[in-house]
Amino acid sequence: MENKRLKILFVCLGNICRSPMAEFIMKHKVEQLGVADRFEIASAGTSDEERGNPVYPPAKEMLKRHGIGSKGKHSRPIVPEDYDNYDLIIGMDASNIRDMYHTFGGDPEWKIKLLLDYTEHPRNIADPWYTGDFQATWDDVNEGCDALLADLGFI
Ligand code: 4NP
Question: Which CATH number fits the domain that encloses residue 72?
Fold first, then answer.
């Protein structure tokens, strides 16, 4: 019997910096682990401000520096149907969580998580759109993805 794929949606505000970094870092990690076929991974934003736009160049560059592509990704806003379509919906900061509660009308199935809640030091991931610190974003997202994979029993 084929294993059911775990569907993960990473969510930030604009879907051009943090959540696409999480999407492509996570895709890279599951490929390296040889378990890509167990997952379906995507990202979206709570705002439609950046709808249709590609990954923001400094975020794209940070991924590229680690050998990770992000080709074909364009920002899209979350829609109410995402709640049923995904198993885990993972925000980057507390305002993402609050905005998702609003769009999804709550979280009856406990699917909404904060990425760094999987780590030993739960905290928000600062928005590099405002801080300009894409290295900090990389470090935080990378730590969060490792912690998520450990939580799921893959590392
Ligand atoms: P992100 O960063 O949420 O990490 O993608 C942002 C990108 C764009 C905007 C805000 C945050 N914006 O307001 O356009």
Answer: 3.40.50.2300
Whether the CB of 16 sits within 6 Å of ligand 1? yes
Ligand 1 atom closest to residue 15's alpha carbon, by position in its atom list: 5
Contact 65, 32 (CB under 8 A): no
Residue 31 domain boundaries: 6-151
Closest CA to 154 of 26, 52, 24: 26
pLDDT for 83-108, tens place per residue?
Answer: 999 999 999 999 999 999 999 999 99
Catalytically active residues, by annotation: 12, 18, 127
Ligand 1 atom at minimum distance from 18 CA? 4
Answer whether residue 1 is part of any domain: no
Rounded distance from Cα 58 to ligand 1 centre (Å):
12
pTM exceeding 0.90: yes
15 lines ligand 1 (CB under 6 A): yes
Tell me how many domains the chain contains: 1
User: pLDDT digits over 37-73, tens only?
Assistant: 999 999 999 999 999 999 999 999 999 999 999 999 9
Query: Is 6 strand, coil or helix?
Result: strand
**SS3 at position 56:** coil
Structural domain contains residue 33: yes
Ligand 1, atom 3: closest residue by C-alpha: 13
